[in-house]
Amino acid sequence: MPPIAPKIDCMKCKYFYVTWDSNSPRGCKFFNFKSKQLPSTVVLQSSGEACLKFEPK
Q: How far is C-alpha 53 from the geometric centre of its chain's CA atoms?
């Protein structure tokens, strides 16, 4: 069983933004991507680790 990653609240990160794209309404300026899911979820699924670039606003 993989270790439990800390829950990261993208809404409080300075790199998070809301897009005008209804298919990908959430984005991350640091990693330069948009997604339906929160960016921290995509990072966790892609790398297996919690997002290490979180910075509070």
A: 9
CA atoms within 13 A on the CB side of 39: 25
CA distance 40 to 49: 9
Q: What is the DSSP letter of 37?
A: S
Give the other-Cβ count within 10 Å of 51's Cβ.
22
pLDDT tens for the chain, 57 residues: list them.
555 667 889 999 999 999 999 999 999 999 999 999 999 999 999 998 889 999 999
- How do the domains of the chain map onto residue ranges? 1-57
Beta carbons of 30 and 15 less than 8 angstroms apart: yes
